[in-house]
Amino acid sequence: MKRLLFTPGLALSLISLLCPLRAFANSPDIQNHIITVNGEGDAAADPDLGIMVMTIRSTAPIAEEAVTENGRKAKAVESGLAALGYSSKAYKITSVTFGDAGGSPGGIVAYQASQYVYVFFDSADLRDAAKLTEKTATVIEALRKAGAVPANFGNPLFSPAQGALIVYTVKDPAAYERQALQKAIARAREAAQDVAKGLGVQITGVRNVRTGYSMGGAQYGSVALDGLSFSFYATKSDELRIRANATVEYDFK
Question: Which fold has domain 49-169?
Answer without folding.
Answer: Alpha-Beta Plaits (3.30.70)
